[in-house]
């Protein structure tokens, strides 16, 4: 098989590179953050593979990356972080089709009680018949005891996404929304002083007038400025539920509700919120701000209707099965298989085989602790990517180029071998597997490596090493090789801290088993453990949620009152808006626009700071609305972003672009890296303070105008950390950070540790959830959870300094540090 040949690649920061990549091999791309790995693997190789494939099918005019040519390619599939369905109905079970197989098993083998003779009957033992009409068909079955005819429960009845299967109360969501009154109504205030949270400005005045008209209609007197807490029961009913509500009709049965606003018609605060959320399809900021999600009172969160959730296979109901871990599900399947007779086994053999294969592969990538009812929107980027990776092996395609971005993200070192096994299986199916990775074990397993650098941004973009890991170690120009050749550094003495401790007592959330742990103040602490062991639950659902909880309760937290603020930096995406970029999010763009707006040339042309915003009309290109590109719908394929034909990617009108600062237009500035902005804005302290912090968190290579949606999970998280440091600099804070080294090369990790150490030396305390061995070894204190994931986790396995954990034979983490 001929090698993939890339000639003259100049996309992004790539410096006219040429490269041959062996086909049907596991190939790792590595290098510092911003060195060009993603640009080469995704923006160049993936893009050109797709372009050639689609053009072969007649789709012309697709964007060609900046290369002379690329040869011996084939269709490519990329498996990225954070690309899972954000629909609340999507779960691990539905996304993997494991739930579909289980529905088929329940259709074939389920047992239920006959509504006529009250005896237990099995679907497999009952005679069936199909009744068909023009629009529909139904399957009926006859009780094998009394011959009573009833509708058979088919796969459709076991889906919570169908009318036949879903709980009628929650429509199959398992939860119902309730208004969170404390978020909406600030009862200690009057309406005039802002008691209703979302009544603002003129709208507030309008609503207050309408409400007073309603009070007048019902003959209720009220003094302006009265706190809502002092309203009568009737006044509150009108305020919250409106004049058409059952509450108000019951309070005033003889008064006809008013018909006009002037006459006293008032919708009600809660009623208004329900209407708004219905109009927006339930997917809005309102839901997050003013509503609580509570377990459905009818199905108790099981999502199916009463009959569908009552039937059993092997004495187990389907909702019970989807709530256990995949490892437990695997054991249930073995018991089922052993219990089946010949005819019954034939009915479900194909589904059992498919289940065994799918579950084995997901367990192999370290996700055996997940349950099928886990919503995909709650998965981390690494979890979502590994599920997709496991699913790719269901395909019998060969000759494909698979491209992956750090498949070991969020994975404990013990589970990395499972990922490597999957990658090799994909390769052995005669596919080419290209992986962006920093994990040393994956590098060792690779057939070939490509090291990019030597630095980030404009200092990267060159091939500085290639070959096997051993070849890379011997190559003088390779940054990765130089790191691997180093002797291990001796760790400095562990900090003792201030002597004070943060203590979590009797933590019982999710899988935490009534644990008590301590974290020294003034130290870098690391919470470790295998995937699903309870790390994030401990830090982000127990520790972060309370400043000081009451004595004697579960999940008691003490010691956090020592800090000015608790700052949490999690892995959740920064923003879904394509208009948010590094400059706007960090706050530096406001200062840059001020500078441009005050330039003499701008003043002479009547151009102000607002004209340099791509979010408002006036100075931006209206064809692309300041984005620089327009979206081309490709129907069955991913939408393509095409350079705007009007502004040619320059985002603004010619007048605005003609205004220059130090020789740079506003679009030139947005195209600068963070590092490049330092000399350009050297006289502006506010700008320098922000950009220098971005550089300190390892983001100096990012472009100021880079859209947040293009950032990796780790980049987004470090940008969040920088923004928090900009806002809270000089305070004694407790920082809780979720896997901050995601996407970082080992050398970048060293630099990031220097930043964390400076934060601690300045008076803050840092607790990180991490798998990275460099960070764990460099910590002052470790809390190791486990021993497994899911129900097998949630215990404290080890606690103390890295030396203490290393000496603890029970600690899996200790074996790797």
UniProtKB/TrEMBL annotation:
Ranges for domain ABC transporter: 243-479, 494-812
Keyword Zinc-finger: yes
Gene Ontology terms, MF aspect: ATP binding; ATP hydrolysis activity; DNA binding; nuclease activity; zinc ion binding
InterPro entries in the cross-refs: ABC_transporter-like_ATP-bd, ABC_transporter-like_CS, P-loop_NTPase, UvrA_DNA-bd
Subcellular location: Cytoplasm
PROSITE patterns: ABC_TRANSPORTER_1, ABC_TRANSPORTER_2
A Pfam family of this chain: UvrA_DNA-bind
Family classification: Belongs to the ABC transporter superfamily. UvrA family.
Protein name as annotated: UvrABC system protein A
Organism: Trichococcus palustris
Record lineage: Bacteria, Bacillati, Bacillota, Bacilli, Lactobacillales
């Amino acid at each position: 098989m001929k090698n993939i040949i890339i000639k003259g690649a100049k996309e992004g920061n790539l410096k006219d590179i040429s490269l041959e990549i062996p086909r049907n091999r596991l190939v790792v791309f590595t290098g510092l953050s911003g060195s060009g790995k993603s640009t080469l693997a995704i923006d160049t190789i993936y893009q050109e593979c797709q372009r050639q494939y689609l053009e072969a099918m007649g789709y012309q005019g697709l964007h060609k990356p900046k290369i002379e040519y690329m040869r011996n390619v084939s269709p490519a599939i990329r498996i990225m972080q954070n690309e899972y369905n954000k629909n609340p109905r999507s779960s691990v079970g539905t996304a993997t089709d494991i739930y579909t197989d289980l529905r088929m098993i329940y259709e074939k083998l389920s047992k239920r009680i006959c509504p006529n003779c009250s005896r237990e009957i099995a679907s497999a033992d009952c005679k069936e018949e199909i009744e068909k009409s023009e629009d529909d068909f139904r399957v009926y079955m006859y009780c094998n005891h009394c011959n009573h005819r009833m509708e058979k429960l088919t796969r459709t009845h076991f889906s919570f996404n169908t009318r036949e299967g879903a709980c009628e109360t929650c429509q199959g969501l398992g939860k119902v929304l309730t208004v969170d009154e404390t978020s909406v109504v600030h009862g200690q205030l009057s309406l005039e002083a802002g008691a209703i949270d979302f009544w603002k400005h003129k709208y507030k005045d309008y609503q207050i007038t309408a409400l007073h008209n309603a009070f007048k209609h019902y003959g209720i007197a009220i003094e302006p400025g009265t706190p809502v807490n002092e309203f009568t029961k009737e006044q509150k009913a009108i305020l919250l539920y409106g004049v058409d509500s059952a509450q108000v009709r019951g309070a005033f049965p003889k008064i006809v509700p008013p018909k006009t606003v002037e006459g006293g018609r008032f919708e009600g605060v809660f009623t208004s919120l329900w209407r708004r959320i219905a109009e927006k399809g339930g997917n809005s900021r309102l839901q997050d701000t003013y509503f609580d999600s509570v377990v459905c009172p009818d199905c108790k969160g099981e999502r199916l209707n009463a009959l569908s959730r009552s039937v059993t296979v092997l004495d187990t109901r389907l909702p019970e099965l989807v709530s256990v871990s995949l490892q437990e599900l695997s054991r249930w399947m073995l018991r089922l298989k052993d219990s089946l007779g010949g005819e019954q086994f034939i009915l479900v053999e194909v589904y059992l085989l498919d289940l065994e294969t799918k579950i084995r592969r997901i367990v192999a990538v370290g996700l055996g602790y997940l349950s099928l009812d886990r919503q995909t929107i709650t998965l981390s980027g690494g979890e979502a990517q590994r599920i997709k990776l496991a699913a790719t092996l269901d395909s019998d395609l060969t000759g494909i180029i698979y491209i992956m971005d750090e498949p070991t993200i969020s994975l404990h070192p013990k589970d990395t071998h499972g990922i490597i096994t999957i990658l090799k299986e994909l390769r052995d199916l005669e596919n080419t597997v290209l992986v962006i990775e920093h994990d040393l074990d994956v590098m060792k397993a690779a057939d070939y490596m490509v090291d990019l650098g030597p630095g980030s941004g404009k200092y990267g973009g060159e091939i500085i090493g290639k070959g096997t890991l051993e070849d890379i170690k011997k190559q003088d120009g390779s940054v990765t090789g130089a790191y691997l050749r180093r002797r291990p550094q001796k760790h400095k003495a562990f900090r003792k801290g201030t002597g004070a401790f943060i203590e979590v007592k009797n933590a019982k959330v999710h899988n935490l088993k009534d644990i008590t742990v301590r974290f020294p103040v003034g130290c870098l602490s690391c919470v470790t453990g295998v995937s699903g062991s309870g790390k994030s639950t401990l830090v982000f659902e127990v520790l972060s949620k309370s400043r000081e909880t009451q004595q004697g309760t579960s999940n008691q937290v003490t010691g956090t009152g020592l800090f000015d603020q608790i700052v949490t930096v999690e892995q959740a995406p920064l923003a879904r808006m394509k208009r948010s970029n590094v400059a706007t999010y960090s706050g530096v763009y406001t200062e840059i626009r001020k500078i441009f707006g005050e330039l003499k040339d701008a003043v002479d042309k009547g151009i102000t700071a607002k004209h340099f915003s791509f979010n408002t009309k006036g100075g931006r290109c209206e064809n692309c609305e300041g984005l620089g590109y327009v979206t081309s719908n490709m129907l069955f394929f991913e939408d393509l972003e095409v350079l705007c034909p009007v502004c040619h990617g320059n985002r603004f009108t010619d007048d605005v672009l003609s205004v220059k600062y130090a020789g740079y237009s506003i679009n030139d500035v947005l195209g600068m890296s963070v590092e490049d902005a330092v000399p350009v804005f050297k006289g502006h302290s506010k700008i320098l303070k922000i950009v220098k912090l971005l550089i300190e968190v390892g983001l100096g290579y990012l472009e100021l105008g880079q859209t947040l949606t293009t950032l990796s999970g780790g980049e987004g998280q470090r940008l969040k950390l920088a923004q928090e440091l900009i806002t809270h600099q000089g305070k004694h804070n407790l920082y809780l950070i979720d896997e901050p080294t995601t996407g970082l090369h080992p050398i970048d990790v060293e630099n990031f540790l220097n930043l964390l150490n400076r934060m601690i030396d300045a008076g803050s305390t840092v607790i990180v959830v991490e798998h990275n061995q460099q960070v764990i070894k460099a910590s002052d204190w470790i809390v190791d959870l486990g021993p497994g994931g899911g129900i097998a986790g949630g215990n404290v396995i080890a606690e103390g300094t890295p030396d203490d954990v290393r000496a603890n034979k029970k600690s899996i983490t200790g074996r790797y540090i």
